[in-house]
Amino acid sequence: MTIRTVRAVPYTTMKQFLKDTPCIASVEAEEHEKTYIVSITNPEVMPLVRKNTETRIAFQFDDDGASFSREMAVEICQLVKKAMDDPADVYFLVNCQAGISRSGAVSAFVQQLCVNYDDWIRKNRMVCPNYFVLDKLLSAWEELYGAPSPTR
User: Fold this and answer.
1) Is 89 exposed, middle or buried (0-12, 13-18, 19+ CB in 10 A)?
2) How high is the pLDDT of residue 7?
3) 32 Cβ partners below 8 Å, 6+ apart?
4) Sign for the pseudo-dihedral over CA of 71, 109, 148, 33
5) What Cα–Cα distance (Å) separates residue 9 from each residue in 23, 46, 150?
6) pLDDT means per 10 residues in the chain (152 residues)?
């Protein structure tokens, strides 16, 4: 299959999801076979994902995106590629503090690669992607895998 749904959420929603507390993310995740997670926090905030795994990675960088490195972009691209190649029906969940800018950039990036725009916008109405982060992700993807397919 591939990534069917991508959603950007705030820190509090991801915290609920990881603690198995009912929330919109847990309801949506039940509709899929597998969940992949990118968790982004400010440097002074305790990461929600404390250990990276095959399906979960965490980063700490400020909303200005200046400390978002090429290496971080490559790691996110690799996780997205793995999720896209996964035979399971994948739910891709991304958080930052407010669920708007940094997570919005990752969410928009995933949408451009493999998620229907109409489906994406219904679940991500509040996002305002950080274009510095989005541009780094698109550049890293092109270096690793070639130019992304046109947006659907």
Assistant:
1) middle
2) 98
3) 4, 5, 88, 89, 90, 91
4) positive
5) 11, 17, 25
6) 94 98 97 98 94 97 92 98 97 98 98 95 96 97 85 51
Straight-line distance from the first to the last Cα atom of the chain, in angstroms, rounded to the nearest whole number: 17
Domain positions in the chain are 3-145
What is the fold, at CATH topology level, of the domain defined by 3-145?
Answer: Protein-Tyrosine Phosphatase; Chain A (3.90.190)
Cα(64)–Cα(135) distance, integer angstroms: 13
Q: Which of 63, 84, 70 is nearest to 3 (CA)?
A: 84
Distance CA 134, CA 108 (A): 8
* Predicted local confidence at residue 113, as pLDDT: 95
Q: Is this prediction's pTM over 0.85?
A: yes
Q: What is the pLDDT of residue 147?
A: 82
What the block records as the tokens of 105 is 């950039």
Q: How far apart are CA 80 and CA 56, in angstroms?
A: 11
